[in-house]
Amino acid sequence: MRVIALFNLKPGVSAADYEAWARGTDLPTVNRLASVSSFRVFKTTGVLGGDAAAPYSYIETIDIDDMDGFWRDVGSPKMQEIAAAFSGMADVTFLTTEEIGA
Questions:
Q1: What is the distance between the alpha carbons of residues 43 and 32, in angstroms, rounded to a whole number?
Q2: Average pLDDT, the chain
Q3: Amino acid 101: pLDDT
Q4: CB–CB of 41/3 below 8 Å?
Q5: Most exposed residue of 27, 39, 70, 73, measured as fewest CB within 10 angstroms of its CB?
Q6: Residue 64 lies in domain
Q7: How many domains does the chain have?
Q8: Cα separation of 60 and 58, whole Å?
């Protein structure tokens, strides 16, 4: 399963602070979880074919191999600490997905 997170930073949170935290804490920790095969964070740069601002500043993709294991992993004290830090920085919508074809 792939989870996609779409988000903007909360007022007062700088992109530099968030990105430093993501690189130094969030990405390495989540990528070490046994239930996750890949965790990536993207900064949006615009809307394809236009000059409009993107509706979200950041996108995360989380490829989960074992959903039951993922819930166990994210319930750990370390992941709860990371989730709390993230929710203090971002207004996020998490979407679960199912691939319909290769």
A1: 22
A2: 96
A3: 86
A4: no
A5: 27
A6: 2-97
A7: 1
A8: 7
